[in-house]
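Hi team,

Filling in the usual template for the complex we talked about on Friday. All components are listed, including any nucleic acid strands or ligand strings, so the model treats them as one assembly.

SUBMITTER: L.P.
PURPOSE: interface mapping
COMPONENTS: two
RESIDUES: 618
SEQUENCES:
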Amino acid sequence: MRTILFILQKEFLQIFRSKGMLPIIIALPIIQLILLAYAANYEIKNITVDMVDQDHSEWSRRLTHQIFASGYFRLNAVKENIGSAMEDVRSDQADLIVVIPPHFERNLIGNNNEKIQVLINAINGMKAGIASGYIQSILQNFNGNIRMERLHQPAIYPPSPPGIDVTNVYWYNPHLDYKQFMVPGILVVLVTMIGIFLSGINIVREKEIGTMEQLNVTPIKKIHFIIGKLLPFWIIAMAELAFGLIFSWWVFHLSFAGSVGLIFFFAGIYLLVMLGLGLLISSRTETQQQALFITWFFFVVFLLLSGLFTPIESMPLWAQRITLFDPVAWFIKVIRMVLIKGSGWNDIKPYFLIILVFAVVVNISAALAYRKRG
Amino acid sequence: MENKIVQPVITAESLTKKFGHFTATDAITFQVKKGEIFGFLGANGAGKTTAIRMLCGLLMPTSGNASVAGFDVFTQTEEIKKNIGYMSQKFSLYEDLTVKENIRFYGGIYGLSNSGLKEKTEILLSKLKLKNEARHLVKSLPLGWKQKLAFSVALIHEPAIVFLDEPTGGVDPITRRQFWEMIYEAAYCGTTVFVTTHYMDEAEYCDRVSIMVSGKIAVMGTPDALKKGFSVKTMNEVFLKLAR
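RESULT (copied from the run log):
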């Protein structure tokens, strides 16, 4: 036990003495939280639109007005024909063309039916999908308005058939604030980085400077060494999580629907997985460069499959199966459940058991891989 | 020094290490007595470091037998580690820790008590004349001082044997001289010193030397006996004759 204390003391002295460390611990999370929370924005605004209004009627102007009043669209130009609007799409000045055909108003009122054409640049598929969704909901709204007005004139026009109105109520995140969704995930990324990168690099560094060999000729016990090496980063990562949560609460007004204690409890076990991985990588590599490269590989795969940027549900089935082995995905799921939905212990218990199994497997492999003798 | 206690503290019999098809250390056999300064010489790549690493429990031997301080190198490496000090050619202290912190850390992991640590630190600092530098980072010390400090730290738990792998590489002649005075002092106090070096003047300071050539021990004996055997005046000439 005393040995561990000596290692801990030495590690903390070195960590806080190194010039690069404090900025990493303080500045990195702030930058990451702010940058990612604002940049990883799924709310699409400022979709540029070319209007081709070939009708120039009152109703066409009302439709145009309604589209731009939504706030999602920005008028790029009003064109006389589709050809010149297509030029704008090719040169990327317009994302979308709305074509209101001639006799729009006449057909709408006379035939009770009219089509308008919407052309969307779908190079960015997600943006195109969202734009199309917005346009559709605006058109629906527009239809509703027409119906309302026409009901006052039942004599001439037959009433519209009754329809079912869908009203959406968004639970847990009523204002669809994407930050409430992104920030918890970014906190997980942050904790993961500290866990997997710093621990592994730290051990390989000792190999590089030659002190590892010196430690290996001492009667230091393997378990003491491992605990002494990993515990400092466990503590730092937990402190980082606390710091990140406070910062997010303060800046992003992050919701705390569930128990913060539960988050820390889960994070504590989750970190064992990451630290163990770092240790495993360090015991298989000789230089910091090698260790960084391999760690980076794992980190990127974990991150891309984590469901932070693309929902796991929209991945192909085989990729969804792989995400079952992604600890980052589990933690992101849990932290979102607890913070946004207010899930309790019983809800996250299965995930906790999964992560516990990961921790045990990874750390046993790491302990077996680390040898004092070559 | 020849008439010291005869009991061997290191014995090696046909100790061999192979890396694939390459035999780094080829069936070496020798004994080192308690309190002896044993010079382990050889050109670069002759297999010295491999041999030392096997004796220190850092490397698993391929075949043969060896015991260090009465413990087997195959099965009792952790016992061996309690009884040896080790200083490698790679600098082994933490440059980003102070002199005092390094002493505390190594003393601590060797299991010294708090009072023992305090006492040892005082003794070391005054012996090395580093009292004023106790709170300086090791990084800021000249190389020779670092090496002397590393040697003292390797002895902090008063081991029976100390292994020195090219301890004076890159050090100026005056500091080398002081370093050897420290080695003599340790040997006088009963510590067995197992040292490798490339400086043949240092070989003259040893009680006994062995010279390795391509993984084998080519000759072994006192410096005087070896010089006489080759009818030359210096160890340098002995070395050159063998290495050719």
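MY TAKE: The beta strands of chain B are 8-19, 22-33, 37-42, 63-68, 71-72, 84-87, 161-165, 192-196, 208-213, 216-221. The longest helix of chain B spans residues 173-188.

Thanks, L.
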